Amino acid sequence: MTDIIEIKKKLPTQIAVLGGGSWATAIIKILSENNVKIKWWLRRKTDVDFIKKYNHNPSYLTDAPLNPRKVKAYHKMNDALNGVEYIILAVPAAFVPDALKNLNRRHFQDKRVVSAIKGMIPNENLLVTDWIEKEFGVPQTNLCVIAGPCHAEEVALEKQSYLTIASPSKACAEDFASLLNCRYLQAHAILDLYGVEYCAVIKNIIALACGITHGLGYGDNFQAVMVSNAMQEIHRFLDAVYPETKRDLHSSGYLGDLLVTAYSQFSRNRTFGNMIGRGYSVKSAQMEMNMVAEGYYAVKSIHQINERYGVEMPIIKAVYNILYEKAAPTSEIGILKDYLK
Prior knowledge:
The chain is of the alpha/beta class. The protein has helices at about 1-10, 20-30, 45-55, 75-80, 95-100, 105-110, 130-135, 150-155, 170-180, 195-215, 220-240, 250-265, 270-275, 280-290, 295-310, 315-325, 330-335; strands at about 15-20, 35-40, 70-75, 85-90, 110-115, 120, 125, 145, 160-165, 185-190. It is an enzyme of class 1 (oxidoreductase).
């Protein structure tokens, strides 16, 4: 009996990763360092065929090699989900309902679901984990989220990185964190699922604001003050929407994730905001970028949620006005200056 148990322990963990972008590719690279088998669903069949032939993503992190003994690409989602223990969602939040439209509760039964998405479901204004729970009946104890501070591009280069795994279930968070730990990445578990998820959503909006101000010619001094004020906005919002007395917003899963997204050259939200500050329209900026800036969709959701709570969030309001009310960035940031201190 002991020998049988030992053999079972050595079997690889079966994981499905849904999404073909840079973050999905980075997560697969990290997981491949450990004892796993990964079924990777991508929307485009041409990408699936390319990966099967050349063992790397043709569109994102193209220099990152993939281990063909551990990673198998799929075009049919049902095939990718068959027999797995974990489902990792790495599709942009706005596209999640369409991507999963042919699935039902059976596909998620007895599986742990991990959201690697840092956005909200538009129109419904729901966190991804809330939407998954509502649509597919996944219990909270089987849900967790991946937070930073971590950029896919640095993972591809195997630079030392850190991740925060949050779940209401300590076992769920710790088990998944153990699948990520490797020579160039450390993952740790915390229990604040909704605090981490909301912070991950809002930090993309703040990064967008940083990009706008940079595009307008503001310097590091102004950005430092804005990011400091942004942390206060996040604190006020979380206290109103999902209060938690043991939450430490100065830890890496909150403040660290905000800082890396606000300042990094790899931040797509900062890049998007920079284009807006330089005079691009929303549509032209979206067309020029090859990746989705989650902050664009998220700011509308957070703005509408906050209409119920009335939290003072001048940075969120400024970004919303610029993107959705067609306010001029120069005048809106000029107004914002008076709020910051």
